[in-house]
Amino acid sequence: MNQSKSQTIMRHRSFAADCNPPFDGLDYMARRPFESWKSTHLETLVGGWLQLDPPCLELATLALAEMTKRREDLAIRMKFAKAELEPIAWLSEARAAVREKLLPDVKAAKSARGRVYVILRGGYTSSNHWYGAYVGSTTRPVAKRFAEHRSGGPRSARGLPTHGIEPLYSLFAPLNPVASSRGKLLEWETRLHECLAPIVPRVTGDVAF
């Protein structure tokens, strides 16, 4: 497949509206979540993750980052190419920013019910590294809010019914729960938005002014 055709597929590709759940037992706060995993196991899992609809791009990208550290990334890069998908180029830097700038301030009460979240958004071009991020907040389970975004209803957001892909748990799971008052939710949504904006090519969502 020539490059221009591949780029067209990437820009216009849409996936099923299902919500990928967080990977059971994975420490999303860890700098290298897959550090203790065997390379052969990761290679097998990545092949499966990229064939799902929607694909688990976050997990596959985290695995690629680990294999790159080991200088054993060629097989996984070939799996991305075979699936005609791109890894999330900015994910590692975004995760580091969240850990360093936001995690030290997390002091939510046990009764807190608020959640901030980040959704991977496609529909962009190679100049934007193919993907952007939508930042939001809710008092509902993230999976239900994701379903609303993908439904195209009045509580959706521009571009997400077609181009929403999956929640990026490694960018928000360690921050939750947060206080559920509207002011605190918007404060954390704004802080997360501003943390990601210098790194992610396109960040959308509400911010406090």
Descriptive report:
With 209 residues, this protein is of the alpha+beta class. It has one domain. It is 41% helix and 10% strand. It is built from 8 helices and 4 strands; from the N terminus they run H-H-H-H-H-E-E-H-H-E-H-E. Strands 3-1-2-4 form a 4-stranded mixed β-sheet, with helices on both faces.
How many E-type strands? Answer: 4
Q: Tally the helices: what do you get?
A: 8
The general outline is globular
* pLDDT < 50 runs, ≥5 residues: none
β-strand percent reads: 5-15%
User: What composes the largest sheet?
Assistant: 4 strands, mixed
Q: Which strand order do you get reading across the main beta sheet?
A: 3-1-2-4
Number of domains: 1
* Spatial extent as radius of gyration: 17 Å
Please identify the structural class as seen in this structure. Answer: alpha+beta
What is the helix fraction of residues, given as a range?
40-55%
Q: What pattern of helices and strands is seen along the backbone?
A: HHHHHEEHHEHE
User: End-to-end distance, in Å?
Assistant: 46 Å
Overall residue-averaged pLDDT value: 91
Organism: Roseibium algae
Protein name: GIY-YIG domain-containing protein
What are the SSEs and their pairings?
Layout: H1 3-12, H2 39-51, H3 57-69, H4 74-82, H5 91-101, E1 115-121, E2 132-138, H6 142-151, H7 160-163, E3 164-167, H8 182-196, E4 203-204
Parallel strand pairs: 2-4
Antiparallel strand pairs: 1-2, 1-3
Helix pairs in contact: 2-3, 2-4
Protein name: GIY-YIG domain-containing protein
Briefly characterize the structure.
This is GIY-YIG domain-containing protein. The chain has helices spanning 3-12, 39-51, 57-69, 74-82, 91-101, 142-151, 160-163, 182-196, and strands at residues 115-121, 132-138, 164-167, 203-204. It is α+β, with helices and mostly antiparallel strands and 209 residues long.
